[in-house]
């Protein structure tokens, strides 16, 4: 039997559907998804098997023009993911087409190491008509020589099998890099923190989600088989703390409940989740916060 294993980086603008596609490929939710931009902050690996091929999907933060330190570190992580991968798949949103952001990414692709296999996946095809799709595919292929073009809906699953089959034959021969039953390569305490961050992002409005971070501080296994998880939500301003807590603590209670339920389902056992909100004015400039997120602090240097 010839086995294959390889890394497939999914890149694209924020909100393109990279995390949705990662989860669909893996068949489980390993990366958080929201309707807001800049949801994913670090590289998240999800593992999928296709015949004798082990596909390691690298979900990356969206590519945009970074301003803050955190943004720069995120964009660096995304391009880093692309240059380390065997295959790069650029996701472009069908209904948005070739935006300025997409143009910049197409330029960036030229700088990737030679020999990188680069494919195009036009995502969210459920949102446009066939004619538009063909025109977009043509225009994109005129601006960059993609090895192959796929038209998919990560959310509905259209076209995803074709993409998976193609990827399985493009990755190099070699032994599998993960046990066959492993689906993610991210410490559990980080997955747990991400789940809470997802609930916060879904629930809170405007800029606040971009100004907070979640860390799992303690994880205790209990004798009855349940887990006690203590997390801290860092915010930069006192006023933000009040918003997260909500009237009589109702907001944080709802967030905690939603996160606990998802975590418990993911782990297949009971979870006791304790959330604490801490104000740290300078967390966006603290190296430790970046390493907790799986980012390189130095990448954020201007
Ligand atoms: N209609 C439609 N919506 C989709 C599709 N794929 C993803 N979405 C939605 O697009 C939004 C963004 O999806 P994500 O997977 O979080 O996008 P992302 O590229 O990971 O975004 P960042 O992490 O912010 O870079 C979510 O609301 C998804 O439900 C699709 O095929 N069709
Ligand atoms: Mg994402």
Specify the overall morphology.
Answer: globular
Terminal CA distance: 49 Å
Helix content: 25-40%
Determine Rg (CA atoms, Å). 20 Å
Sketch the topology as an H/E string, one letter per element: EHEEHEHEHEHEHEEHHEH
List bound small molecules: guanosine-5'-triphosphate, magnesium ion
Bin the strand percentage.
15-25%
What keywords describe this structure?
23% strand, 302 residues, globular, 9 helices, binds magnesium ion, alpha/beta, 36% helix, binds guanosine-5'-triphosphate, seven-stranded mixed beta sheet
How would you portray this structure in words?
The chain has nine helices and ten strands. The chain is α/β, with parallel strands linked by helices and 302 residues long. The chain is globular. The chain starts with a strand and ends in a 9-residue tail after the last helix. The site of guanosine-5'-triphosphate has 25 residues, from α1.
